[in-house]
Design goal:
- The protein is an alpha+beta fold.
- The protein has one domain (about 1-85): 2-Layer Sandwich (Alpha-Beta Plaits).
- About 40% of the residues lie in helices and about 30% in strands.
- The chain has helices spanning about 15-20, 25-30, 55-65, 65-75; strands at about 1-10, 35-40, 45-55, 80-85.
- The protein has a 4-stranded antiparallel beta sheet.
- It is globular, with a radius of gyration of 12 Å.
- The N and C termini lie close together (about 10 Å).
Length: about 90
């Protein structure tokens, strides 16, 4: 099990959140579970999500997926994602 964070800016949080929620079945199928979701105090369109996943390979595979990239684009992600994959110690 690994934990990963992903931070990126979105055009409109409310619209992004609808599409993010709709994509939950795809995350569940990959064994990825949302732990928590945050927006920055200074910019409510700067989103950080924390997830648990079965392995770094699952995370890397998911993040390199053309389907996910298209989903993120359609949801209004406007910055490159900053991803950190971590082992719990």
């Amino acid at each position: 099990m690994v934990t990963f964070t992903i931070t990126h800016e979105v055009r409109d949080f409310a619209e992004w959140k609808k599409r993010f929620d709709a994509d939950e079945p795809n995350r569940a199928n990959a064994g990825v579970k949302l732990v928590s979701l945050y927006t920055a105090i200074e910019n409510s369109n700067l989103v950080t999500a924390i997830f648990d996943a079965p392995s770094a390979d699952v995370v890397n595979g998911m993040l390199s997926s053309p389907e996910l990239k298209e989903t993120m684009k359609n949801a209004g992600v406007i910055s490159a994602p900053d991803v950190k994959i971590m082992n719990r110690v």
